[in-house]
UniProtKB/TrEMBL annotation:
Residues 1-131 form the Reverse transcriptase domain. It comes from the Eukaryota. This is Reverse transcriptase domain-containing protein. Pfam families: RVT_1.
Amino acid sequence: MGHPQVVRVGNNTSATLILNTGPPQGCVLSPLLYSLFTHDCTARHDSNTIIKFAGVTTVVGLITDNDETAYREEVRDLAVWCQDNNLSLNVIKTKEMIVDYRKKRTEHAPILIDGAAVEQVESFKFLGVHITNKLTWSKHTKTVVKYTCCI
């Protein structure tokens, strides 16, 4: 492969770096290649779903009776799959959001990937949509309204 990459910010340009893996960023084939490459990355447990789109992989797990075993195994299996397939998980960009409607919520121990704790968040942006742990539209609506006011 060996395609060059540079970053330009204003009048500044970084040194050229030669990339030896993957398609160039922004390539029209990138989403298709990602889908083909990750096709065999599937959920092992029926209570979990793995969503993959345009370079983003998400594990959604249903935890019942406070048994997080299947969910935690799924995350661990995903980390192993990535390692086996020469993909790296960016733990800093990885987030965990817990949606819990019970009146008496329990604390959840953080998920660990390569010994690093995954940050638990109350909301995050997923494929352009702001999702909250209350599953309300208020944060997304405020963001869209704020954006449209600036146009």
